[in-house]
Structures are given as C-alpha cells and as structure tokens.
Amino acid sequence: MDSPQKTILIIDDDREIASTIQSVLLHAGYRVFMANNGMDGQRQIEHVKPDLVITDMMMPRMGGFPVLEFLRTLEEPPKVIMMTANEGSRHKAYAEMLGVSDYLRKPFAMELMLEAVRKAVTDDEPKTTKRAPRKKAT
Predict the structure, then answer these.
(1) Taking a C-beta distance cutoff of 8 angstroms, is the pair 11, 38 a contact?
(2) CB 69 within 8 A of CB 41
(3) HSE toward the beta carbon, residue 104, CA cutoff 13 A
(4) CATH number at residue 109
C-alpha cells in the first residue's frame, strides 16, 4: 500500500529558485505550496500543516531563523531543510540546534535537494529536536 502523498512548503523570496524547486518536487510526486517570506510561511504552516518545510535563511520581512523558532512552539512541527548562500558555520550550528533535518548551501544540485527531501520525509525520527524528559534520581 502506498503511503499518503507528502506535503512540502517552500519558503523563499527568490521566485526563480522557489519555482525550480517546486517543479522538481511536483515531478517527484510531492504536494507543494509556496510562501515568499517567513511571515507568509508561518501562516501557510498553520493552514497547510506540511510534512516538510524548505526555507531560505535570508528573506525580507522575516527570515528562516524566526520560522525555525516558531516551529519549535508547535506540538507536531514539520521537518525542515534550510538553504542559504551564507558560508557562516555559526549559522549552520544555530540551524542544527533549532532542529533542521538538513542544511544546504546554494548553489546546490537538484539531486542533492531531492535526496535531502527523501531522507527528511521518510525518516521516522521526531520532526525536530525536542528535550528529553529528565530522569528522576533514585
């Protein structure tokens, strides 16, 4: 039996990049929605409830990090792939601390994006990093 079609939200202000990713993901069989900044992305996340969010780091109005912080407030947050042209390792470390499944530096091959998406939507791990409950001392 086939698993249900996975829903992906792309949040990126670069329409050319977003539409290319959208086309590739649609062709691969995913349902795809788009938002052009973090504020629109947050609204879409609440409305669409995607399985995966692919977000750019730097965008006008609201970038990717506030989106990641917003996702941590959700009971069942979607997995996240962050993409950026930024070379800074501190940004990558912060993104990983906030629970991203993958961190892609632009430009990247679409095969790399597809593999990151496949891995994220088939991974049975929790969608984002959550704190483990404390064990009681005995």
Answers:
(1) yes
(2) no
(3) 22
(4) 3.40.50.2300
71 in the Ramachandran plot: left (φ > 0), alpha (ψ -120 to 50) or beta?
alpha
Angstrom distance (rounded) from CA 112 to CA 104: 8
DSSP code for 1: -
In a domain, 13, yes or no: yes
If you average pLDDT over residues 42-56, what whole number do you get? Answer: 97
**Mind listing the pLDDT tens digit for each residue in 3-38?**
579 999 999 999 999 999 999 999 999 999 999 999
pLDDT tens for each residue of 106-138: 999 999 999 999 999 997 554 444 433 444 444
Rounded average pLDDT over 91-112: 93
How many DSSP H helices and E strands does the chain contain? 5, 5
- Residue 136 is assigned to a structural domain of this protein: no
User: Under a CB-based contact definition with an 8 Å cutoff, are residues 127 and 76 in contact?
Assistant: yes
Burial of 125 (0-12, 13-18, 19+ CB in 10 A): exposed
